[in-house]
Amino acid sequence: MGTTTPVAGSPAARALRPARTVARWAVRHGMPAAYLTREARRGDLVARLLRDPVLRADPHTVHEQLRARGPLVGSALGPLTTSHAVASEVLRSDRFGVGFDWSAAPGPARWALAFGDDPTATGVAEPPSMLVVDPPDHTRYRRLVGRAFTPRATAAADPLVRRVADTLLDALEPAAARGEPVDLVAAFAAPLPVLVIADLLGVPTDRQEDFLRWGAAAAATLDPGLPLRRFLAADRAIRALHRFLAGHFARLRREPGEDLVSRLVAASDEDALTDRELHATVLLLLGAGFETTVNLLGNAVVLLDAHRDQRNALLADPTGWPNAVEEVLRFDSPVQITGRTVRADTELAGVPVRPGSRVTLLLGAANRDPDVFADPGRFDVSRGNARDHLAFSAGIHYCVGAGLARLEAAVALRALTERFPGLRVTGRPVRRDLQTLRGFEHLPVTLR
Ligand code: HEM
């Protein structure tokens, strides 16, 4: 697109940074926000869901209104589905990809995209993050990281997860003894996955506060139409993470460990990652490794508090925990929305869809599709087919860390419930102000 990129870190790059940041915001968030606000005013249900905090608090009501219109509906975002069958088909088919097609975008938008590109600030939803890259590069990335997340490697993390859970629960004993309220997100649901993924990736766990702060700010970039102020906060957080990673990679080049990141840094065959790919891959693993699992844990605690009989049944028979985790993933999915780009002329649910257009998949709605799940609005930890949900997606982008997340949730929730059987949600849980991710920011509980 005719834009030359100054060398990262050079004086020219530094001088252009503010303008490039605003350009990136404008094309990725500012223009979509203006468009969605206009469409919401015109009554588009999906635009209202994304823009209106009241509707966002209870997305399922809107999901059901959309479902009533059919398996594929037109929306401000383009074709959209609430159907489990349609979402599965899209996720599993090579007629759809993850890369955005910018070729039909207006010239100024394409210019802003190229001008705004900045390797020192690339987020988890921008290439070369594997989330938004199609084969053959995607195949190469998955081959490299997949080895560290095989079922065997995941099972080997069991003692680590137990140790982390026990340490965090031990730290809660004094508050429990005094009968003091505790924010369970801050004290348990957030630190547990961050300590686990940091250990697995060989990054120093004493930076957990930094990771949590950076991760929370950066997670917002997954949402369409982020206001400039929040985008700038996310941009600062992502830059700080990249700076941290650059120092970390330099250390591992000098003193490699046994972990995945040391192997990625040292790889020298044709699979080896470029510096930019290395940053994108580790940033994604680190961020995805805790920003989603925290939501799963918080959502589970609130649901089990509201369904005490089911919680008591799990206390009596702990073999039910893995299925309970699946039911939480289905019922209150931590990742609510994803999308795919149509790669070739094709039909979906009998409707022609054009190459380059974007199909939006409401995973949270697909997971309550009555064609797959009987009485889908009922929370039932013994549901026979709970595991058929799409909370971890499907197809080639199926969550790399699904096994780890399942293990963490089953171990952590069992340990928490057995340690504090009298745990109650005592205050009003506060949802995170996010649309793509769904979970709690604050979760006040008493433990005994
Ligand atoms: C409850 C916890 C989690 C949920 C609900 C979740 C959900 C998802 C979903 C829905 C996707 C695919 C998005 C799409 O198809 O567009 C995904 C991809 C991914 N997840 Fe997770 N995830 C969780 C935990 C983790 C953990 C613990 C890790 C850490 C290893 C992780 C790493 C990844 C990576 C690297 C990808 C990209 C895979 C690819 O593009 O090929 N996730 N996750």
TrEMBL record:
GO terms for biological process: cholesterol catabolic process. Coiled coil: none annotated. Pfam families: p450 (PF00067). It comes from the Bacteria. InterPro entries: Cyt_P450, Cyt_P450_B, Cyt_P450_CS, Cyt_P450_sf. GO terms for molecular function: cholest-4-en-3-one 26-monooxygenase activity; heme binding; iron ion binding; steroid hydroxylase activity. Keywords: Heme, Iron, Metal-binding, Monooxygenase, Oxidoreductase. Gene3D superfamilies: Cytochrome P450. Belongs to the cytochrome P450 family. PANTHER family: BIOTIN BIOSYNTHESIS CYTOCHROME P450 (PTHR46696:SF4), P450, PUTATIVE (EUROFUNG)-RELATED (PTHR46696). This is Cytochrome P450. It comes from Geodermatophilus poikilotrophus.
